């Protein structure tokens, strides 16, 4: 295992949002399509924040064929010494895995592939300093976990299966890792007992979407509009940067899903 596996990163991969993002999948009750122009501005600010946090960012061109392809976290898992091409659980997103191959070949010597029949979305994977947690969801199933677990164990990691609460899209929609052993999560996730053994910080009531934060090196990226969360994390000693993700939220996206973050050897 690597020190600070959970948040010690050097590189990231992002993909610009397409015009077709307005057709992205959603359960969201917001009832609005994202505006691709505003989305592009928010995405550009997000990429700048990753760079300011110390990351070298590979920025991929948009894919009109895949409306949700801006959410690059879901088709892959990037670890310090290997990348794993996953099998996204939504049919319209299946081809996104293949789409990531060229950049992964540039960035990694060791690329593994889930061959199925199971499914795993990257949004259901939380890498802590000591293990890789995988939440079962509507997009991630047991067969997918089993295949992923075999792959990561073969590279020296530990994997553990958990249950994402039923109405939560992805495991990391409602939780994020703040340090090697500290998780920031909604009351629902904490009550479900999935973070036993971890120190937990509960998302302030009414600010549940802020649970999808991203720790990168010395900073924590937060969605703007959640002042209680910002104050709480600052009280815990974290340096926070707030970013608008209003357009991504209209298609159930947030901060973590718009990048693949990893540490290059
Ligand atoms: C989807 O439903 O797949 C996209 N509209 C949103 C994906 C968000 N990804 C994530 O939370 N990891």
Characterise this structure:
The structure is a single chain. This protein is α/β, with parallel strands linked by helices and 265 residues long. It has a single domain, classed as L-arginine/glycine Amidinotransferase, Chain A (5-stranded Propeller). It is built from 7 helices and 15 strands. The strands form 5 sheets. A 3-stranded mixed sheet has the order 2-1-15, with helices on one face. β1, α1 and β2 form a beta-alpha-beta unit. The protein is globular and about 45 Å long. The mean pLDDT is 96. The site of citrulline has 18 residues, from loops.
Annotation keywords:
single chain; L-arginine/glycine Amidinotransferase, Chain A; three-stranded mixed beta sheet; 7 helices; 15 strands; 22% strand; binds citrulline
Compact summary:
The protein has 265 residues and is of the alpha/beta class. The protein has helices spanning 36-52, 96-99, 101-107, 142-154, 187-191, 227-235, 246-249; strands at residues 11-15, 56-60, 76-78, 83-85, 111-113, 125-127, 132-136, 159-163, 175-177, 182-185, 199-202, 214-216, 219-223, 239-243, 260-262.
